[in-house]
């Protein structure tokens, strides 16, 4: 068949081109970039493949390779590419053979003609691929037309779905960005006017993406930027080894050297939310690169940059349009008051998009009396644009809408306890709110509150990665809250009302304190007093009583961990936000007798070593501990701890070489969650002695190869989740003794070849998640699993369909999932 011969030739030429460039980093980058430009063709091949249903083992192998760590050697990368070429040829051969088989049938003549045309069109496009990769064009790309330095855009948030009033500024900014040369541009305006929204629209603009390609870097600078962390993440995203920077200067210098090696590649760096006093830091990013643009957004006009674009409030017509969009959004039957009242509300928003969005969604379908009340309160006082304080005062009125359920308002104010411009883990909020407000442990009530805040535009819910098991949503480890910095200020503004002795929450942010003091002293020209004031604040001669139920402390390398200046004996929830290499719990924590929840989040690039857990041993009310991005050499003994959550942690020393067995550390543990812990290769056997365990979730731990053989001893276990543990080879035979197990999730356990024979003994199993488990062999004993719902993909469902007539009340559910070929691009890294 002619097409088959041509396909062989095309594949062979692709492989030869790859071999020519694989040992040269610059050439390889261009080759990867070219193949990434072929996404539409790959998509068409994938669609043919899906329609014709050829074998998919190669695709599964590729997915597994994508889940593997990016520490692969060159020969492993070559293996990935060879698998890609094999998959490519397999898919096309399947299409061609299918076409040939169809030609031998007498029916569906039209369908045959369409398929013949489709295959010819695809081969024609593949010939175009070779023209792109021919010697002349490829060498032209290598000579300096500028391929992407990075694997793709870094940190660019999702584009806003609906905006008004930004088109003119967008056009002006885009004109500047598309010019050749270096420049630093500033977008300024008060908080809530849409500076970040405008920056996002620029990054998603087709012309801007066409010029800068993957070299678009979006960084939220915030009030207290951490330059070393920013640069470390740049290096990681570029695929380069991340050095140990000696200082911020060292980090910036090495970044400049890395970028200059790719002279000729246009680069766009967006520094979002730059505060006064950070001008010098911004200037450190101004490297001498020929086509390099920096876009800065700031609430204040900074005079030292090349061009300034001032965002102004929306004109009345645009404000009404925006208000109308959000008041009607997602609702069909609304109780909307007369036009005059709407006009008055919009007028009092003074053209501020954030205020319009929050107020519109808050008033949507609310009683007429509430509209009148809000209009009356908004009409009092000065212009909403006079100052941030005035704006916060106006927005504070909207919190009255939450008064129908006071817990909603309390939960909103809790969001302000987390650092500015950082994602807030929903799982941490669930732990807090379960203990503070008595919400259910499963997170359903907490998610109802979060969804309400999200619908009111008072918080944005972000789901980082969707799984088929999201229908159960039993941990929400992929769910995060993103809070606008102005709304965070609103939460803290509300938290700080009244005398400190009556406040429910206390936020101690050392970094923000230093920055605020620096700015205040700079304005008064008294720089010499800064250090002495800071020292006096950190070390009080007399301990300060902390009456709050919730305490949040942010600490970096420059702040000592001595807590002797405060007495937090009333605190029930402690949030520690770290940016340090090491941290030891202070001895004063022994006095926190009412502490119920401990949340430790490291916001640095590398794990923070966490020590001195022993001081927590006497805290009899401590029920929940959540640790993120930390390294734990050894745990203490927590006799009453009910839930332990480890997210992106290194606990290998504590689990394998610790002086205390895990069963002795957590004798009454009921819930163990381990997520994205890349060093976890095996679960400690001592876990099987914690018979109180009801839930175990070990997800995205790709090196985990086995579970303890005695896992069947966990007689009270109700939930076992092993999502995306791609190296897990088998489930222990003793799993058949988990007679209380209700939910088992082995989705994306790609190395799992079979289920144990005793799986049929799980008489209470009701939900079994098996997405991407088509190669997992089912034993005959599954016929004993009555009233079972299997949630899986189509191929895995085919394995279960043969048992459908033998299993009483079996339900097979295949959720719809979006086709996403990003994993194909990941093998190019």
User: Architecture of the largest domain in CATH?
Assistant: Alpha-Beta Horseshoe
Strand content: 5-15%
CATH class of the largest domain: Alpha Beta
Percent range of helical residues: 25-40%
> How many beta-strand elements?
26
Structural class: alpha/beta
User: How many domain units?
Assistant: 6
Query: What name does CATH use for the topology of the largest domain?
Result: Leucine-rich repeat, LRR (right-handed beta-alpha superhelix)
- The tally of helices reads 28
> The biggest beta sheet, please?
13 strands, parallel
> Uncertain spans, ≥5 residues at pLDDT below 50?
48-77, 102-107, 128-145, 521-540, 819-829
Outline, from the CA principal axes?
globular
Q: What would the average pLDDT be, to the nearest integer?
A: 78
Computed over alpha carbons, the radius of gyration is 29 Å
Strand order of the largest sheet: 9-11-13-15-17-19-20-21-22-23-24-25-26
The first-to-last residue Cα distance is: 36 Å
């Amino acid at each position: 068949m002619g097409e088959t011969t041509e396909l062989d030739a095309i594949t062979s030429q692709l492989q030869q081109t790859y071999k020519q460039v694989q040992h040269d980093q610059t050439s390889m980058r261009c080759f990867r970039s070219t193949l990434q430009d072929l996404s539409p063709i790959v998509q068409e091949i994938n669609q043919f493949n899906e329609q014709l249903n050829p074998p998919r083992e190669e695709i599964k192998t590729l997915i597994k390779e994508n889940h593997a760590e990016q520490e692969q050697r060159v020969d492993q990368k070559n293996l990935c590419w060879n698998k890609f070429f094999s998959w490519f040829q397999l898919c096309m051969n399947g299409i061609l053979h299918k076409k040939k088989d169809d030609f031998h049938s007498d029916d569906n003549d039209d369908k045959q003609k369409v398929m013949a045309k489709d295959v010819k069109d695809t081969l024609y496009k593949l010939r175009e691929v070779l023209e792109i990769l021919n010697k002349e064009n490829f060498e032209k790309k290598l000579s300096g037309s500028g391929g992407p330095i990075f694997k793709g855009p870094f940190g660019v948030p999702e584009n806003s779905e609906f905006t008004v009033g930004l088109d003119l500024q967008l056009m002006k900014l885009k004109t500047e960005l598309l010019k050749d040369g270096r420049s630093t541009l500033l977008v300024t305006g008060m908080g809530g006017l849409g500076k970040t929204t405008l920056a996002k629209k620029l990054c998603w603009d087709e012309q801007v993406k066409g010029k800068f390609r993957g070299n678009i870097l979006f960084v939220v600078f915030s009030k207290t930027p951490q330059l070393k962390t920013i640069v470390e993440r740049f290096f990681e995203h570029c695929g380069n080894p991340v050095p140990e920077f000696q200082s911020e200067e060292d980090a910036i210098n090495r970044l400049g050297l890395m970028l200059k090696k790719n002279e000729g590649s246009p680069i766009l760096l967006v520094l979002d939310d730059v505060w006064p006093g950070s001008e010098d830091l911004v200037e450190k990013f101004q490297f001498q690169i020929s086509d390099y643009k920096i876009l800065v957004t700031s609430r204040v006009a900074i005079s030292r940059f090349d061009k300034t674009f001032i965002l102004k409030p929306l004109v009345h017509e645009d404000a009404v349009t925006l208000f109308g969009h959000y008041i009607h959004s997602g609702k069909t039957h609304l109780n909307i008051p007369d036009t005059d009242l709407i006009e008055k509300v919009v007028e009092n928003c003074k053209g501020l998009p954030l205020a319009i969005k929050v107020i519109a969604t808050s008033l949507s379908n609310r009683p007429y009396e509430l509209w009148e009340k809000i209009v009356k309160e908004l009409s009092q006082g000065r212009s909403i644009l006079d100052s941030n304080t005035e704006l916060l005062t106006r927005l504070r009125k909207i919190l009255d809408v939450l008064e129908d359920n006071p817990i909603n308002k309390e939960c909103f104010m809790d969001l302000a306890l987390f650092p500015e411009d950082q994602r807030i883990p929903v799982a941490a909020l669930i732990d807090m709110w379960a203990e503070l407000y008595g919400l259910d442990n499963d997170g359903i009530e907490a998610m109802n509150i979060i969804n309400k805040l999200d619908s009111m535009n008072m918080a944005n819910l972000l789901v980082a990665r969707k799984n088929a098991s999201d229908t159960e949503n039993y941990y929400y480890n992929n769910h995060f809250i993103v809070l606008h910095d102005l709304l965070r200020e609103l939460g803290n503004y509300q938290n700080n009302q009244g005398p400190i002795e009556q406040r429910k929450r206390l936020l101690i942010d050392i970094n923000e304190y230093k920055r605020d003091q620096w700015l205040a002293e700079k304005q008064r020209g008294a720089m010499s007093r800064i250090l002495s004031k800071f020292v006096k604040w950190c070390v009080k001669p007399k301990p300060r009583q902390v009456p709050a139920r919730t305490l949040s402390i942010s600490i970096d390398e420059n702040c000592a961990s001595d807590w002797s200046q405060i007495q937090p004996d009333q605190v029930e929830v402690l949030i520690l936000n770290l940016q340090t290499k090491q941290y030891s719990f202070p001895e004063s924590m022994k006095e926190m007798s009412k502490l119920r929840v401990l949340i430790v989040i490291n916001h640095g690039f590398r794990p923070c070593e966490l020590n001195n857990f022993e001081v927590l041993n006497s805290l009899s009310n401590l029920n929940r501990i959540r640790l993120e991005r930390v390294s734990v050499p050894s745990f203490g003994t927590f006799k009453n701890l009910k839930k332990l959550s480890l997210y992106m942690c290194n606990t290998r020393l504590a689990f394998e070489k610790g002086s205390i067995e895990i069963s002795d550390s957590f004798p009454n543990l009921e819930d163990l969650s381990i997520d994205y812990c890349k060093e976890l290769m095996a679960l400690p056997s001592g876990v099987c002695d914690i018979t109180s365990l009801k839930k175990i979730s070990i997800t995205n731990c790709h090196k985990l190869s086995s579970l303890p053989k005695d896992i069947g001893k966990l007689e009270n276990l109700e939930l076992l989740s092993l999502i995306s543990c791609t190296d897990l080879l088998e489930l222990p035979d003793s799993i058949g003794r988990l007679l209380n197990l209700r939910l088992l999730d082995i989705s994306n356990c790609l190395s799992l070849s079979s289920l144990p024979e005793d799986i049929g003994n799980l008489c209470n199993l009701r939900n079994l998640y098996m997405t991407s488990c088509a190669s997992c062999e089912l034993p005959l004993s599954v016929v004993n699993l009555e009233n079972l719902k299997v949630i899986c993909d189509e191929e895995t469902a085919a394995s279960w369909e043969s048992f459908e007539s033998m299993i009483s009340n079996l339900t097979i559910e295949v959720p719809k999932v979006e086709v996403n070929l990003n994993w194909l691009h990941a093998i190019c890294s």
